[in-house]
Design a protein that fits this description.
Blueprint lengths: L5 H11 L6 H13 L2 H17 L1 E2 L6 E2 L13 E8 L2 H10 L4 E5 L17 H9 L5 E4 L5 H14 L5 E4 L15 H9 L5
Parallel strand pairs: 3-4, 3-5, 5-6
Antiparallel strand pairs: 1-2
Helix pairs in contact: 1-2
Length: 199
């Protein structure tokens, strides 16, 4: 028995395909969109179509952009000798929020994950090696997540870069500001000790 009109069910099904959206949330979103005035619903649909049409990957760093080359790669004031390697475009936003990093980025668009059938050929490692091979890069900062896949990806890339005589560093991980030591796990404390700095 069908409880909803087919078009509404189809809309809910499309929302359910999004990561982190379950069936009930998808239904709520579908009902919400259906309740929008026609003009707002059209603006929502237009925004999706326009983003799909105009946003593409930067040919240099693989970040998302609507220009020929993204504004970060195109900025002459940034340090072009240092590249921070991240897994996803959203990681660039997180790094930029810190306002500390003044180099360039390289977005892998994923990490090596055998369980999810993602190999080194499925992510943008080739493009990184090509950039390093051009000779201007002096340091690569690996900023993938400190989980199993992120660590494996960082190690794999660092092995590929070793013969290219470029310095490869890893972000220091440790105890977050404002937290308490008793709640930190062993791996976090170990990383914090390894990355300790002189005061």
């Amino acid at each position: 028995m069908q409880y909803f009109p087919a078009a509404l069910q189809d809309l809910a099904d499309q929302f359910a395909r999004l990561p982190g959206i379950g069936g009930k949330t998808a239904q709520r979103l579908a009902f919400y969109v259906l309740g929008l005035p026609a003009q707002e619903a059209q603006a929502f649909a237009d925004a999706i179509v326009e983003a799909k049409k105009t946003v593409h990957t930067c040919p240099v760093c693989q970040n998302l952009t609507d220009r020929q080359i993204c504004p970060i790669c195109d900025d002459d004031l940034r340090d072009h000798s240092v590249i921070c390697v991240v897994a996803e475009p959203k990681d660039v936003i997180a790094m930029e929020r810190s306002r500390e990093f003044k180099g360039l980025y390289h977005v892998l668009h994923g990490v090596i994950s055998p369980l999810n059938h993602i190999t080194q050929d499925d992510i943008r490692i080739k493009e990184l090696l090509q950039r390093v091979g051009e000779g201007e890069v002096q340091e690569i900062i690996m900023a993938t997540n400190p989980d199993t896949e992120g660590e494996a990806t960082a190690m794999y890339i660092s092995r590929l870069l070793r013969p290219m005589e470029v310095k490869v560093t890893r972000l220091a991980y440790g105890v977050p500001v404002g937290s308490q030591l008793e709640y930190a796990d062993e791996v976090t404390l170990s990383r914090a000790l390894e990355g300790r700095q002189e005061m």
